[in-house]
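Question: Hello, beginner here. Any chance you could explain the protein record under this note? Any guidance would be welcome.
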Amino acid sequence: MQEVPQNELNNKSVYLPHHAVVRTEKETTKTRVVFDASCKGSNNISLNDELMNGPVLQEDLRSIIMRWRMHKVCFVSDIEKMYRMILIQKEDADFQRVLWRQNTSISDEVKHYRLLTVTFGTASAPYLAIKTLMQLSEDEGEDHPIAKRIIREDFYVDKTCWT
């Protein structure tokens, strides 16, 4: 995220409500931030109401599983912090603003930030993540034809894990 310069504070923008989810039983990520792009603003419209979800880019799960059964080995993996690795267009960043205080002290100044990557909780996030993988397969496919085919035909992302 990037702090919003003082002279840009009045630009057209959307502020996303957010809160922490603390999971003490987890070894690694004990705390994560959850953004609520479905929260309605004073105009009774949310960011998710205005975002396009994008078309379905993956084949249906049944077809993928049928093809998986033809291989001796299938891989399951986790692309760690996938959304945080995908930059959004700069002109869209002001529609993902947050207010943030570095410390919990009420005397600490609240600052304005814009999120620069795909954000959990936005309606378009799953599409953008899959589209990025598809584009990567196109851009690098000539040098990695097997990976390109796997991403295009045998890759499945469970979007329910992204909420």
Observations:
- The helical segments are 47-50, 61-68, 125-140, 145-153.
- Residues 2-162 form one domain.
- The chain has a mean pLDDT of 88.
- Strands lie at 2-3, 18-22, 31-35, 97-100, 111-114.
